Protein 1
Amino acid sequence: MFINKVTVTIKKDKKYLRYIQIIRKYDNSLSMGQIKDAMDNGGVVFGFDPSNDPIIHNGKDNAGIFLEDSFIKTLRMLKKAGADMTVMDGMSECTEFSKVSSSRENTEKLIEQLFDAKDGMEVFAVIDKLKRAANKSVSNRTMIIENIMKYSEQTHLSHLKSLLIPSINEIVKESENQYAGFYKSKIEHGDNEEAYYAIEGYAKVMQKASYDYLVETLLSRKLDMECEALIVCELSHLSNQPFDMDSPYEKREWKDGDLKLADIEKWRNDGYPDGKGYEEPIVHKCLQNPITHEEKIYAELNNRLKKRREQGKDKAYPAYWLIQADETDIETIKNKINPPLNYLDFLMKASPLNVEMNLKDYGVVSLYGAHNLLDGQLGYSVVPETDGETSDWPKNFIVIATCEADPFCIDISQANSPVYYAMHGMDEWDFEEVFDSLADFLKALK
């Protein structure tokens, strides 16, 4: 295989001791110090000379084997271990042993697998690997993005076209405006679901340069309400203008008046000035200086939300907050529901405002706060059309949170009620106790 004298240089990294171990199995005449110094200084770590193939190597008779095979095996072991090495056959680089080459080869194989995939499960298994590869290799990231985009256009699995766009959105970086054309084509020619995810991607890669196109698209009223609501939210996020303030948290629930088209058109005419966002909600002092056992639980919950709040996508819409409840809301709740004191204490001091958290074995849970607790009973204990009571709902149960419309409830007749859960869409409500107390439920939220 090799023609000239071969030299190997290796960049030192945290796995250098493993590399030394592999090299010394090939040539134990090299000391650990020698190999380490060569790595530190960018020198030749070890090599092979095909013109000088000794019979005795490492104290063993090698007449029955070729030393070159042992050398190649060593290179492959180093490559598998992750060594970033340069192998030179004289003045020519042997790229097949370099880390970059290995990464590219693996990426190309994954891309082949993507285009050969037979079903959605196989597609997204490959996509997950490509996303990890894109994070590890800057040189391969562009190739990965372009090929996923290409696949989304060519796939015969039409139901995947929209579902691939969020994966692309994860890989692209802010201000990578070379991908704007892909997103615009999805917004203008894709279905509503494709357009929705493409709006997110377009805003990400174009940032404030997206204003003209997004505003023009919004004012044209060619998309469905959910897409138009997302445009408003993206504009709010990028500009810090509170265009989406007081609009429903769920974009599919928006109405025409929530779009604030006149305000957005005026903002455009004024030259797209940045806003100040929203004023931070009022929080109870116990979240910073908890005294009671319950207050410490609220404070811990608030700490878990803090990172999400700081990284919150929409700067103009307060989310992931625990706030001090409005007194009017509390009085209304007491008059209509009269919840137990421990739950009332939670609402007064740590009322969830647009809070979604993960709950193991269930998924994403949306918490009700004092401002929307009563509305949250609609469709469960309350008939939406008449405000009357539903006949099959357990007496004294109130919904405090939902997971994809499945309710989590407490029994207001108990001073410290367990938390109950049931699946919706069944013929009848079949509740089971899932947490011993409200406190345990709150502690389980992540």
Protein 2
Amino acid sequence: MHIHKSLSSLGGELERARQELRIVEEQILFQMDVAEEERTRMLVAETPLAERNYRIARDDLERMHKERQRVSQDIERLRTEQDRLLDRMLG
């Protein structure tokens, strides 16, 4: 019974992590557009402010990529734990 409860809990965590990944991926797509816009402004304007805005947008995008990697690793960890519990249950 303990395994069933753990599997149920892991299933909920896995679903939340997948939802978080979908949100992060949507944010990445948006931020890619923002960074590209700021890059274009920087190239056209050639001002320190435009360069600063581009750096900020680029850094934000990099942080989002790192967040996606973290969430993906969480999902993989949860899947591995789920597989381990299923093996114990069946084994």
Protein 3
Amino acid sequence: MDLDRPYWNMEIEPKFNTPEMRQIQNDLLVNNIQGMYDAIPLTKKRMDDAGVKPSDIKSLDDLQKIPIYGQPEMRELLGEVGFDMKEILRLLMGDSINDIYVMAATSGTTGVPTPYPIVRAGLPTMREINNRMMWRCGVRPGDTFVLAFGLSMFLAGTPTLLAMEDFPGITILPIGAEAGTTRIINFTRLFGGNILLCTPSLALHMIEKAPEIMGDSVKALGFKTLICGAEPGAGIPEVRKRLETEYGATLYDMGAGVGVSCDYPEYQGMHWIGDDLIYYELVDPDTRKTVPLEDGATGLGVFTTLDGKGGGMLGMRMTMGDVHQVHTSPCPCGKSGFRYKIVGRTDDMLKIKGVMVYPAQIKDVVESFLPRTTGAFRILLDEPPPRVVPPLKVKIEYGEGVTKGDLEQLQKEVEEKMHQAVKIRPAIEWIEPMSLERSDKKTQYIEKLYEK
């Protein structure tokens, strides 16, 4: 094995985001569309309802004839079947429901958890995707992973453990976020580990807790690489700088599809590394009309399985609800694949005087003031979203060493940057450092005061 090669799959990865790859995608779709229509009841129903036959799909452009399917449609379907999850899986998977090996799910933070079954037939595809991502993160034989994503049903947890199985020469410590920060730190000290997989929130929390738990900085744990995902953070410059400095490690971002960031010093977004497996589109979040894939384009990420296997659920123009911004020009790192950044989630979207605002955008601004803020904040909602009567109320922790006399100037700067970046001026409530609850998993940024 050539450990210096740039890609895990040297045959296919250099072709990403090229005219040759688009032709490969086109051929895969046309060859597999009939099989997906026949095998997956929900795909058949959606196409029939839209009056689309498999023979009508003669190219990638013809996919636009099939409506987008996301969490609102999934919730509606759940209601139609009386929240019978077995029936939902039958509709999503057809006969492959009999091949389920592991059942994972989203965290369900915005409603009913979305199921993500792992079938035995899909394991090779899942492992191929994982290996491509890990290789780009510099993972090589001899590395030891501390797996600190939630293992209890979470999509990034146990499925990640399964996906690692055929990467050569690595060791995995599946500690899990459920174990808590103390056990994660102590187990790492006992058994070693030079690569940490977790949410950005947990990585930041470990910085704060390490001196208390082990009497030393988090750098003493010896991680060389951080691979973070499942929530925003790893792409925010100030957060990246803090994590890389405190850990003395290189940080990679992954998620919201099959993407992973590169090692270029300035964050370039995540490289899409699955062109031959999943077709990627952007659509307008409101109109759901196709948005051309051009530098700087923003829209809802939409995915279609191309290989006819998929790993369980065969997606046909499915969306996870993430709004992306893409860049199709060559990355300065030299690696293949267009890049995408996460703008926010449609489920979290707030509308303030017609302006669409996402918690991820608020997070970007708050964390840009580190260390004058701790980065911790909560959005306070008096009424159910998405409509918010202005001003948007936000609680923000000021940083250690910031005095009450400093807050007036800090508030002016935060308000101004919020106005420039998000087009709103929030009502800020300043609170003391460490006032807000920290999470070992995903952090919930919205407080629903109307439910209290």
Protein 4
Amino acid sequence: MDAVKPTIGFIGLGIMGRPMTRNLLKAGYTLRVYDIVPAAMEEIVQAGALAGASAADVAAQADVVITMLPDSPDVEKAYLGPQGVLEGVRPGTVLVDMSTIAPTMAQKVAQAAAAKGCPMLDAPVSGGDVGAQKGTLSIMVGGDEETFARMEPIFAPMGKAVLCGESGAGQVVKACNQILVAVTLVGMSEALVLGSKAGVDPAKIVQVLSGGLARCGVLENRGKRVTERDFAPGFRIRLHYKDLNIIREAGRAYGVPLPASALAHELFGAAMAAGRGELDHSGVITVLEDLARTEVKKKS
């Protein structure tokens, strides 16, 4: 990028997008933002960003456009739909989608962007709301090396970026990440349900497991919250269920059996059927609690 910091357009100001934009503002970037929820946009405007009227309007006034949206259809609409990014964007503008979507959709949008003369990266993230707030996200990038090098200074306030391969590779690695997180959440849930029903304080279980080989990011970021019955969403069950659908589709496409992912998919599906889709994804433990007729809660 030039010595003068580029103007960034940021579209999608949800649980992840809001803290990500705040970190970019703190780093001195000028931001133009847009979200279909006016209140979410107003919060970031109050923090110093400029409001856009649409995705196309934001794209027309930005040197770099970043999107952070819930699912593949949302990304397709934001880029390819009426008043979408590609209607307003200027040739040469760098486009970066940081949503978690199907690799095939990432490639489709990147091809359409290339036809407009715009390089594009898929750059999904891991680290949840805590990582977004702290600027410590793991950013998995698919695209060409030159565009990645240009974007590294912009990624830096949000987290650590790694170029994983060509277009779509970032989304493939994110699918791998979501396999490990989902399966680990299920394993943690089983451990806490078993220990708690056997009479052990689950807070003690979290403390002990955090010091041995079982220690992991899931336990560190979600263990204490589970024992306190805090399922306020950092990453919603419905979104992880969406990711597990993407994972299963990828398994079929590449001919890879994913039995543990299939089990996690069913448990997350059960949570969805029970009306718990808006809970944090650690709330999958409630399905196992139902089956065991118990509740995991630290002892007072």
